[in-house]
Structures are given as structure tokens and as C-alpha cells.
Design a protein that fits this description.
10 strands, four-stranded mixed sheet, four-stranded antiparallel sheet, 10 helices, 14% strand, globular, alpha+beta
């Protein structure tokens, strides 16, 4: 029924190289990702071969140093790549964002020797990462995590369980936050753990309402032994490393949310201009036209918000408050836009024959991951009014 192809987003990109990069991403998304998305999400199939292709194409390490196999791209470009990928399939866009999050600690806090040894494979060698912070009893209160790492000579022995881990069971490496000292944030240290370590296992993936192709599982550490050379940063520095990674990761979620919202809007516009009732396209009716206009405005505002934060990051300026705002606004926008897209399609929107119902189910998780939107509001308020009084 839709007879109007969506127009590519008109992006403001800083270089010709960035424009060529976006063209490459769009080509991969249209040829390799989008055509299989609905079928594979319905079947719960993880597209590992797509991540291999992205790695071979230089797209898994875009914001990192080319010395180690990265793409040397500013964050404002990397995030727009994520948006394009997420519009084609959120499992892929979010997966790239999580992989980048898993690389952050080593790329920014590792020693030169660690970076030379591990980063090339992580950024461009076909490996896929997981970020292990949350636990069954510590989600928003991450500083209360209980997974322990105990020193044993030149090694560390890890025991505990991580929860809600994207790529749990399929990741080649995990960035793990574990307790090496006393209670609270200062007793946490970061480690780089190989995915095939003895004693590391994953539970059966969670059964989710959306993103069924992306495995989310508990990861168990049962006497996992790793050398001290895989400790990232100083002992007790792990929580600060985690917060630094999450500031950047929230921008990745914001970009993915805008991608999902854009895909939903494109579908709604195509349907509205092709579907006729009362002898004319339903896009002629003012009530629906206003709905489409509001959807488009929210998306454009969200895109501007995450790009503003990214440009602050690229300039080396503080961006934590803007990252929280972008994550909050963009994910709320994705939820509202996808709900509205289902409404535009009416009964068809509620069926799996059209992708908007999948977009709506997927959008919900973006309001939860990497800090719920209630946590984002707390972060923003602390920047405005200072810490809460005890």
C-alpha cells in the first residue's frame, strides 16, 4: 500500500569522508540489514554475520584511535552512523553501541601495552564485546554491585553474576566491573575478561517483548581467573571508569532512539500518503497531518540535542548533563512517535504485517537501558540544584 519511499535524512556532516561513510552505512543497511530484520527478529535470530561485516567495513571502532584499528571519527559522526543502523534494525544499532561501550574502558584508561595487545582485535578484528555492570540486585544502584574479584598472586579470581547483559553468551570479551575493596563506589575495579574464560557462562537469554534478536542474559563468573594484566586502570577506579563510559553510552542510546523514531515516521508518512478513505489520502486530513508534523518535530529536536552533546564531547568540554538530557528526550520521543505511528496505521499498525508494532515494542527498552529515564532526570537535576540532601 505505501507508495512514497522515505527520503534519507539530510545530515550536516563535517567532512567529505563522513559523507562517504554515511553512504556506505546506508548501503549496508538497505542491502544487508533491513530486508531480513522483521523475519529474524520474529525468529529471535542474532545476526552475528552482520557484526562481522561491520567489523570488516571498519564500522565497529569508529570513535577510537586509528593507531589501534579505530576510525578516528568524531562522536557526532559515529552517532549518526548508529542512527542509520538502528533505523534499519535496532538489534544492530544498539549492538554496535554496546560494543563501543565495552571498548571504552581499555581505550581510555588502559596502559599503552594493554591497548597495543588487545584493541586492534576489539576494534577491527571481528570481536564483539559485552559490558558487565548491572546485577540482579543492583541496577540503578550500580555502586552496590557484589561480583567480587579477589587477588591471588599475579591473578584475580572473579565470582558473581551480572544481569541484563547485551550479547550475553555470544560476546568474545567482557568489560567487567567487580568489587575488589570495601563497600561503595571506591571499592570497584574494571577488568577485561575473555569470553571463553574457564568458569564464565551465560544463562538462557531473557524472553523479551522486543529486540528478540539481541541476546540479553545473565552472565555467571564461577572462579574465573585472569591475570593482573587484564585489570583496567587502578584498583578502586572502576566506578569512575563506568560512569565515564555511561556518559558516552547514553548518547549512543539517544541516537538509536532517533533512528527507531525516524523509521516509524517514514512508515507512517508512506502509509498516510498511500491509504485512501472517503476518496482521498488520509494524509489530507488535518488531524493526521498535525500528528505527523509533531512526530517530525520531536525527532528533529532529539537529533539536534544528541548532536549538541556529541559536539561538546568532541571539543573536550563537559557533556554529562547534555548526554542525560539527550537520552531522556530521545527515548521518550521514540516511545511517543512509535505509538503515534501505530495509530496512523490504525488496525494495520497493530499487526505484524507492518513494522511499526515492532518499533513500538523496541522503543520501550530504550527508556530503561543504560540508566532509566528517571535516573536521567536525577542526573540533570543534580547539575541544576546540586546533590540531594541526606
Amino acid at each position: 500500500m505505501p507508495d512514497r519511499a522515505p527520503q534519507p535524512v539530510d545530515r550536516q556532516l563535517p567532512t567529505d569522508e563522513a559523507r562517504d561513510l554515511i553512504s556506505l552505512v546506508r548501503d549496508i543497511a538497505q542491502r544487508e540489514i533491513a530486508p531480513k530484520a522483521a523475519e529474524e527478529e520474529d525468529a529471535g535470530r542474532f545476526p552475528r554475520e552482520i557484526f562481522t561485516l561491520l567489523s570488516e567495513s571498519g564500522l565497529l571502532g569508529l570513535p577510537y584511535d586509528s593507531e589501534y584499528g579505530g576510525g578516528d571519527q568524531p562522536y557526532e559522526v559515529y552517532l549518526q552512523v548508529l542512527e542509520e543502523l538502528a533505523a534499519a534494525r535496532l538489534t544492530v544499532g544498539l549492538g554496535v553501541s554496546v560494543h563501543s561501550l565495552a571498548c571504552h574502558a581499555l581505550a581510555n584508561y588502559g596502559t599503552k601495552e594493554q591497548q597495543v595487545e588487545h584493541l586492534p582485535d576489539m576494534l577491527g578484528g571481528g570481536l564483539l564485546g559485552a559490558y558487565c555492570l548491572s546485577e540482579p540486585a543492583s541496577g540503578s544502584d550500580a555502586a552496590s554491585l557484589r561480583t567480587k574479584a579477589v587477588r591471588d598472586g599475579d591473578d584475580w579470581v572473579l565470582n558473581g553474576t551480572k544481569a541484563w547483559i547485551t550479547h550475553g553468551g555470544v560476546a568474545d570479551f567482557c568489560t567487567v566491573l567487580a568489587r575488589t575493596g570495601g563497600e561503595g563506589a571506591r571499592g570497584i575495579t574494571a577488568f577485561l575478561v575473555p569470553g571463553d574464560s574457564e568458569g564464565l557462562s551465560a544463562a538462557v537469554p531473557e524472553k523479551k517483548m522486543g529486540m528478540k534478536g539481541s541476546p540479553t542474559a545473565q552472565v555467571h563468573f564461577d572462579g574465573v581467573r585472569i591475570p593482573d594484566g587484564r585489570r583496567i586502570g587502578e584498583e578502586g577506579q572502576g566506578f569512575a571508569i563506568a560512569l565515564s563510559a555511561l556518559d558516552s553510552g547514553r548518547l549512543g542510546i539517544a541516537a538509536c532512539a532517533v533512528g527507531v523514531a525516524q523509521a516509524a515516521l517514514d512508515e507512517a508518512v508512506a502509509y498516510a500518503t498511500g491509504r485512501e478513505q472517503f476518496g482521498r489520502p488520509i494524509a489530507d486530513f488535518q488531524g493526521l497531518r498535525f500528528m505527523l508534523a509533531d512526530m517530525a518535530t520531536r525527532i528533529e529536536a532529539g537529533r539536534s540535542l544528541y548532536l549538541t552533546a556529541a559536539r561538546l564531547r568532541d571539543a573536550g568540554r563537559p557533556f554529562a548533563r547534555q548526554a542525560a538530557m539527550a537520552k531522556l528526550f530521545c527515548t521518550d520521543t521514540a516511545m511517543q512517535v512509535t505509538i503515534d505511528a501505530v495509530q496512523v496505521l490504525g488496525g494495520y499498525g497493530y499487526t505484524a504485517d507492518f513494522p511499526v508494532e515492532r518499533y513500538m515494542r523496541e522503543a520501550k527498552v530504550l527508556q530503561i537501558v543504560e540508566g532509566t529515564n528517571q535516573i536521567q532526570r536525577m542526573v540533570i537535576a543534580r547539575h541544576l540544584a546540586g546533590p540531594e540532601s541526606r
